[in-house]
Amino acid sequence: MWKQIGSGAVLLAAITAAGALLAALAAPEPAVRNVSISRLASGQSFAPVCKASEITDSRPDPAWVGASFAGDNCQAPRMPAALNGSTASRAQVVASMAAMKRYTAASDAFQRCIDVFVAAKRAQADKNNKPMNMPLVVLENHRLLASENNKKKVAAQVRLAIVAFNEYGSECP
Predict the structure, then answer these.
(1) Of the residues 61, 109, 119, 165, which has the maximum number of CB atoms within 10 A of its CB?
(2) What does the pLDDT read at residue 31?
(3) Is 88:160 a contact under the CB 8 Å cutoff?
């Protein structure tokens, strides 16, 4: 009987040791990258990240997103150029605000054009008792989403230019 208890205890110890070894091997090592020793020594483990007024993505869309697609005759408007508010004059800032309003109106017209085109294709498919061309719908939805995101980008660019102008470039002596 003592032999069976001893064998069980040895087996249990072996399983526990193997599990501990696997847990130690599987545990990820703490990643330390580009850490400033002086910053750590002063008790600042994290560098400040200021992104409150930053535009997250200002890359232009591929050309096909704005071009007429599948004969829809809908052309996306060209985004206005971004303005550096810290070096711009008041007239340039006001002009960029007007350009944003024109762009928003043109973008809304572009989105309505796509909506009308997709509705016409849907009506035609219903009339012919055929299924709707789903890849066309997906691509047109992507164009709508890209247009809406571009409106947000333009508004953010103008807002940043205004803030920079008010803080740095307000033509003060």
Answers:
(1) 165
(2) 47
(3) no
Per-residue exposure over 140-154, b if at least 16 CB sit within 10 Å of its own CB, e if not: beebbeebeebbebb
Lookup result for tokens 């040895």: 10
Token representation of residue 35: 């850490």
Question: CA-CA distance, 46 to 137, in Å (whole number)?
Answer: 45
Single pTM value for the model: 0.62
Q: What is the DSSP letter of 59?
A: P
The amino acid at 142 = H
Q: Which two tokens stand for residue 159?
A: 């807002």
Q: What is the separation of C-alpha 135 from the centre of its chain, rounded to a whole number of angstroms?
A: 23
pLDDT tens for residues 101-139? 999 999 999 999 999 999 999 999 999 999 988 888 888
Tokens coding 74: 């809908």
